[in-house]
């Protein structure tokens, strides 16, 4: 997600600095962005000039007016990133790509809580149109308006939601995903046929089980556990999901989840 978000910003003309735990991860992220730009160019989604602009806007040093964190879905880890940044860059907007955690709690730990906001991109960020903007209790109007304007400049369609567990998208997506897993677990239909029901019957671009593979079974399990605790038992993860996560079947990133993956192809 971090590499995808960086690509979106760089494509739109913003000097963008990548940060990660080590140089190897940074090099891998940069390579993925270059490959994504090349694919988009080969499919005539962008011009050669736009692809080159995206590469040129990946810079080594930058004084940010916006920081977007996309670390794992753990609020203490996110606070550990955002809190020092709020002192290092007090004028910058600090955005979290969280899909379910409390922006209000993150903001409370920061030096400038009014500059903290949620920017929930969807996977893959260069392709997906939606940007869910989550307003913490402390977020000021200037920050909200600046991020809404940026979303449109990035070519995204923003929705504005309150800071409640799961926001709008994850709350609906998780409830559908958990029910699809329960159906698979009880033998209602195969994974492929459950997904086809939503793709062809309801015009979803991707079925809930394939989407869970794409997002990561571990990620969806963590969100479901969080929503169960915060909202109620309707989000309780099925035992099948826990078993697959324990087995290391995390979806596309491990090559096996509800589907087997060969690159971008699922079977």
Features:
267 residues, alpha/beta, Rossmann fold, N-(1-d-carboxylethyl)-l-norvaline Dehydrogenase, domain 2, 3 domains, two-stranded parallel sheet, 11 helices, globular
Strand content: 5-15%
Strand line-up across the major sheet? 3-4-5-6-7
CATH topology of the largest domain: Rossmann fold
Q: How many strand segments?
A: 9
Please give the oligomerization state of what you see.
single chain
What's the helix count? 11
Rg is: 19 Å
Using the alpha-carbon principal axes, give the shape. globular
Using the 3D structure, state the CATH architecture of the largest domain: 3-Layer(aba) Sandwich
What report would you give on this structure?
- With 267 residues, the protein is an alpha/beta fold.
- It folds into three domains: 1-61; 63-163, Rossmann fold, CATH 3.40.50; 169-266, N-(1-d-carboxylethyl)-l-norvaline Dehydrogenase, domain 2, CATH 1.10.1040.10.
- Helix content is 49%, strand content 13%.
- It contains eleven helices and nine strands.
- It has helices at residues 2-11, 23-42, 48-56, 75-88, 103-108, 141-153, 169-185, 191-201, 208-215, 217-230, 239-246; strands at 16-17, 58-59, 66-69, 93-96, 116-121, 130-135, 157-162, 261-262, 265-266.
- α5 (103-108) links the parallel β4 and β5.
- α1 packs across α2 and α2 (23-42) runs antiparallel to α3.
- It is globular, with a radius of gyration of 19 Å.
